[in-house]
Amino acid sequence: MKQDMIVVLDLGSTENTVLARAIRELGVYSEIHPHDITAGEVKALENVRGIILNGGENRIVDGKEVEVNPELYTLGYPVIAIDCPSAKCEKCYTNLPDKEALKSFVFDTCKAEANWNMKNFIEDQIEQIKKQVGDKKVLLALSGGVDSSVVAAMLIKAIGQQLVCVHVNHGLMRKNESEGVVKVFRDELKANLIYIDASERFLTKLENVADPEQKRKIIGGEFIRVFEEEARKLEGIDFLGQGTIYPDIIESGTKTAKTVKSHHNVGGLPEDLQFALVEPLKQLFKDEVRACGLELGLPREMVYRQPFPGPGLGVRCLGAITRDRLAAVRESDAILREEFARAGLDKTVWQYFTVVPDFKSVGMKNHERCFDYTVIIRAINTIDAMTASIERLDWDVLEVITNRILAEVPNVNRVCYDMSPKPPATIEFE
Ligand code: XMP
Q1: Which residue of 82, 137, 244, 324 has the smallest Cβ count within 10 Å?
Q2: Which protein residue has the closest C-alpha to ligand 1 atom 12?
Q3: Cα–Cα distance measured from residue 227 to residue 237, given in angstroms and rounded to the nearest whole number
Q4: Mean pLDDT rounded to a whole number for the chain
Q5: What angle do CA 133, 290, 353 make, to 5 degrees?
């Protein structure tokens, strides 16, 4: 283990990630763990230098105030409490400590070294992956998005040919996307890649399913089943690699915080899951994942490609998915991406996509009444996907995109621009 670590225990604060990031910004690695972690589990984390008990407004769970295991105080690590005064701690704060106080705790009290950087993180992860996997094989769900691509690069570096990448086309991919994944990973990076076209299977399962959580669970569950079927055909596969990142875990709900939405690779896992998971990015925020990808030598375009959710266009074809609306999402998204690239916006805007809601509105085409779908354009900027603000798009660019969508995409007669920041809206609609 190359890096010192400060453990943040979640005692109901809504600011756990702010605190962990503040510590990482000091150059010291920090992980957030549940309040009821055992002393043994803390010891197993290696290189822990101190513990912060991070209390807050969610500290009452099931009518009781959450508490830490008293045995944690006997481990000999310095402990401070924030907004949850405890006589057993060395220091107590009633609010997030300011930067100087945090620095003093981390460096003077805990004697942590500022040795958190991507090179060390990758070395640690590679060591852990080798230890976990041994001479077994890992099956990786390679969607081609930033997260799974970075995991693939990490796993290729750690275990080389023991990695088997599987790209499942669930029928909810963007235009020409699956073809691109095969080209980059099989042809250029020489990865061991299996391509499966499961479009019909997914779309049939999703017929008439309108509830967003249910859609996500079906897509996530079906995904794993496709992998299990594939794994049965292969020999000696015991592990499943996943591009789970930290915001996925938080938003799927912790012991003190409620579920915002189940993430495709967290809450959607079926209970009869047959694999142990390898998730080397699960402690990273999105911006850190990109830095990790660059450090692993992935090309810039790949690392800075906008994120694309696991359930794909399925969460952008709102309500029960129909093939005509799915086609409208796919075609309008392709136009949006083409025009953003033409205007240079692909380099500055963090994420941009189109959505097609499940309603029709009245319009006029060729002097006749029409009753067609609406395309909503969403373009946002963010650092870590936890909050987001809208891109103030140029009217001329918007108009070009709008006119192209109206002229080229069948069954659409209206285009809107989503002005909502996150919160209260999330980036995706479902
Ligand atoms: P939200 O909609 O939660 O999105 O504000 C935050 C970021 O996460 C992406 N996203 C996902 N990524 N699996 C993923 O790998 C998912 O199920 C998923 N859902 C949302 C979203 O596109 C945005 O960048």
Answers
A1: 324
A2: 309
A3: 11
A4: 90
A5: 115
The position carrying tokens 């094989």 is 137
| Cα(393) to centroid(ligand 1), Å | 22
Q: Which helix (H) or strand (E) holds 345?
A: none
Please state the pTM of the whole predicted model: 0.74
Mutate-to-test residue for ligand 1 from 143, 149, 386, 427, highest number of ligand atoms within 8 A of CB: 427
> Is residue 327 a contact partner of residue 372, using CB atoms and an 8 Å limit?
no
Q: Are 139 and 227 in contact (CB under 8 A)?
A: yes
Calpha distance 42→8 (Å, rounded): 11
Which DSSP letter does residue 423 get? Answer: T
Measure the CA–CA gap between 25 and 288, rounded to whole angstroms: 11
**In this structure, what are the phi and psi dihedrals at residue 217, rounded to the nearest 5 degrees?**
-65, -40
Would strands 64-65 and 60-61 be described as parallel, antiparallel, or unpaired? antiparallel
Residue 248 contacts by C-beta under 8 Å, 6 or more apart in sequence?
A: 263, 264, 265, 266, 282
Tens digit of pLDDT for each residue in 249-303? Answer: 776 666 776 655 555 554 444 455 567 899 999 989 888 999 999 999 888 878 8
**10 Å Cβ neighbour count for 236?**
10
